[in-house]
Amino acid sequence: MEWKKMDKRPRISKGRLEALYRQYNQRGFVQPDPIQFLYQYEDPGDREVAALVASSLAYGRVAQILKSVSFVLERMPPSPSFFLKHTSPERILKTFAGFKHRFTTAEKLCAMLVGIKQILGCHGSLGECFSAGVKNDDETVLPALCAFARELSGKANGRLDHLVPSPVRGSACKRLNLFLRWMVRRDDVDPGGWENVPASKLIVPVDTHMHRICLYLGLTTRKQANMATALEITEGFRALAPEDPVKYDFSLTRLGIRQDTDLAAFLKWGRIE
């Protein structure tokens, strides 16, 4: 995958980003965001399953996302991890019969859940599976992300399609990178749970909204929101926060989403000419 590092710092000050982080990186600004489902799980094993379900379904209208994630998690009480470990594939299919979330059918959802079940059986946890692919000399989690997506897809008999995209094909994998942010970082918003994956290696979750903001702020010049763009944006943030390049993701994505934020004002005053 070809991409080149930025040859200069982004046109935004770290102080402005830190101010935005202090203002919006709070639980009070989470709703409506699917990360809210993770807060009900104290055990990292349950949290990682809930996180992968919630992030995978995080496309489309927010109201429908929350409804769909609730539908799935409410059928695996009180422990999603225990449910998958001790429920047969046939029973999983019956449990989620009739599920539909835009492009995701009950068949696709169950394929992912059975794939998660298989990974839990082989590795003990999703975190152990993912961290096995993280190497000290890897600059980002991209190689581990490729390996994780490949193993999950394989254990789901290759039936995941849009639900769990492959980074190898150039996708920005926004939802998988969102999943990693939730499970690796730990602050007032991100609950964490994975201790063996460095936050310094995370990749910024990039969709059209984040892409538009980063274009204006000089964090990328690329016109498509693909993996090459996500890596370039991550490199720009790494120049400001080497140990935590994804730190500002939640705060920045509040802009233009919440009605009490002012995207235009931030873009005007946050940029350095």
Task: Describe what this molecule looks like in 3D.
By secondary structure, the chain is mostly helical. It has one domain (14-270). It is 49% helix and 1% strand. α2 runs antiparallel to α9 (174-184). The mean pLDDT is 91.
Largest sheet: 2 strands, antiparallel
Q: Which sequence of SSEs, written as H and E, runs from N to C? A: HHHHHEEHHHHHHHH
Q: Structural class of the secondary structure composition?
A: mainly alpha
Cross-sheet strand order for the largest sheet = 1-2
Q: In one word, what is the shape?
A: globular
Are there runs of 5+ residues with pLDDT below 50, and where?
A: none
* Overall pLDDT level: 91
Extended strand count: 2
Oligomer: single chain
Cα(first) to Cα(last) distance is 31 Å
Task: Give the proportion of residues in helices.
Answer: 40-55%
Question: What's the Cα radius of gyration?
Answer: 18 Å
- Work out the strand percent: under 5%
Instruction: Note the total helix count.
Output: 13
Number of domain modules: 1
Q: What is the topology?
A:
Layout: H1 14-24, H2 44-56, H3 62-73, H4 80-85, H5 89-95, E1 100-101, E2 104-105, H6 106-123, H7 126-131, H8 142-155, H9 174-184, H10 208-216, H11 227-240, H12 249-254, H13 263-270
Feature tags:
273 residues, mainly alpha, globular
In short, what is this structure?
The protein has helices spanning 14-24, 44-56, 62-73, 80-85, 89-95, 106-123, 126-131, 142-155, 174-184, 208-216, 227-240, 249-254, 263-270; strands at 100-101, 104-105. The chain has 273 residues and is an all-alpha fold.
